[in-house]
């Protein structure tokens, strides 16, 4: 009965093979076994025990956990995708680890599409002499960000409940999946699948430079579910003035909802005088890949590459 209800919460079909192994994964929902599993994953996130992680749809809403990751404390609802990833150490992927390698203690980092704050707060820990500016328009995500910020002693983080785009405007932010608030996105028309929406303010990043709110930018992380080109269009002055390192999600499916493609985004980044690499491998991105979904690390051509 429990498994039937769990699968009914998930918006996708679960293959029989996965259901079979889920019978064993379910045991790791027992608190002592869960703690054991998390401990093993802390030591080796990509090892054998990764196969034992219970899927997020096994957890009811408000399955709350408190966890410390890389010196940052988080309050997590592991029935949600990003929270689940953080709790079970799945956020320790090569792309983000490569990004964190480049963060220096005095850097100013702009986290655009902050969600609950994993990247923003990790960067705050890494650049204690610098600053982090976190942009998140979604009300629910912004509340989670504030909660996680309050759990930590950081004084170098400033948050903004606003979306960034090409021009000042107002838009509809649609919530596609209740289990993944990180997939919320601004769209011109209502999608077929949606569990709600809200109106949000949109501002160009350059406006924050012009009014003096931001006086420096060393790194821009942009993960806004297909809205990336518009963010970049509204940040031309920031990019030209400070030539920051860019970390940009490139997702074909999301970009097509905005009438762009992954190749369009990569070519646009190159037109801004950046070298665009796969963030996980630090090598050139395979432009022939269908339905591309990759994180890009983009280095300004005016600065030498140093890995």
UniProtKB/TrEMBL annotation:
Question: What Gene Ontology terms describe what this protein does at the molecular function level?
Answer: methyltransferase activity
Which interval of the chain is the signal sequence?
A: none
Tell me the ranges covered by the Methyltransferase FkbM domain, including all copies.
111-275
Keywords attached to this entry: Methyltransferase, Transferase
- Where do the coiled-coil regions begin and end? none
The keyword Methyltransferase belongs to this UniProt entry's keyword annotation: yes
Methyltransferase: present as a keyword of the record?
Answer: yes
GO biological process terms, alphabetically, are: methylation
Q: Name one Pfam family in it.
A: Methyltransf_21
Record-annotated membrane-spanning stretches = none
Q: Which InterPro entries match?
A: FkbM_mtfrase, SAM-dependent_MTase, SAM-dependent_MTases_sf
What PANTHER family would the database entry show?
A: METHYLTRANSFERASE, FKBM FAMILY PROTEIN (PTHR34203), SLL1173 PROTEIN (PTHR34203:SF15)
Name the UniProt record assigns to this protein: FkbM family methyltransferase
Classification from the root reads: Bacteria, Pseudomonadati, Bacteroidota, Cytophagia, Cytophagales
């Amino acid at each position: 009965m429990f498994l039937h209800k769990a699968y009914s919460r998930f918006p996708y079909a679960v293959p029989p093979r996965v259901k079979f192994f889920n019978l064993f994964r379910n045991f790791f929902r027992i608190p002592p076994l869960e703690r054991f599993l998390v401990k093993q994953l802390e030591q080796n996130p990509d090892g054998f025990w990764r196969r034992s992680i219970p899927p997020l749809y096994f957890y009811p809403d408000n399955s709350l956990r408190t966890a410390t990751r890389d010196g940052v404390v988080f309050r997590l609802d592991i029935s949600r995708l990003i929270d689940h990833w953080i709790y079970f150490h799945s956020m320790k992927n090569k792309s983000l680890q490569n990004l964190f390698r480049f963060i220096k203690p005095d850097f100013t980092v702009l986290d655009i599409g902050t969600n609950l704050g994993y990247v923003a707060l990790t960067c705050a820990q890494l650049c204690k002499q610098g600053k982090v500016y976190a942009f998140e328009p979604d009300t629910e995500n912004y509340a989670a960000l504030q909660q996680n910020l309050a759990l930590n002693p950081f004084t170098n983080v400033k948050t903004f409940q606003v979306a960034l785009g090409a021009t000042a405007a107002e838009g509809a932010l649609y919530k596609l999946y209740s289990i993944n608030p990180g997939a919320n996105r601004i769209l011109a028309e209502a999608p077929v699948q949606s569990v709600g929406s809200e109106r949000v303010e949109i501002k160009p990043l350059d406006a924050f430079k012009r009014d003096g709110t931001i006086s420096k930018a060393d790194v821009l992380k942009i993960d806004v579910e297909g809205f990336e080109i518009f963010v970049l269009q509204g940040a031309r002055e920031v990019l030209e003035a400070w030539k920051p390192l860019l970390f940009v999600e490139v997702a074909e499916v999301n970009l097509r909802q905005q009438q762009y493609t992954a190749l369009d985004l990569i070519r646009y980044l190159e037109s801004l005088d950046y070298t665009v690499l796969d963030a996980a491998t630090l090598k050139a991105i395979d432009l022939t890949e269908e339905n591309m979904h990759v994180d890009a690390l983009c280095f300004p051509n005016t600065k030498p590459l140093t890995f």
